[in-house]
Design a protein that fits this description.
The protein is an alpha+beta fold. 24% of the residues lie in helices and 30% in strands. A 4-stranded antiparallel beta sheet has the order 3-2-1-4, covered by helices on one side. The protein starts with a strand and ends with a strand.
Length: 88
Amino acid sequence: MKKLMYPACFYPCEEKPGAYTVVVPDLPGCISEGDSLEDAVAMAADAAAGWIKDEMEEGKPLPAPSDMKDVHPDSPDGIVRLVEVDID
């Protein structure tokens, strides 16, 4: 089983208290959300796995994960966490 770790930015949803929107900067267009931070982490992993699977099926190289210290949220209330992505 091969796993990758990508940093992701989590932002509290204004419309839904307790929910989070998540963006994986290394995977352009990879955005998801969850009803809680824990749910958003799981949803981010699923979205990233789907993104990576599509790229692999098209024969494209996978982007290398950024160093977490180099990833910064776009807003002051955002946080950065690593997301474990299972690509098997």
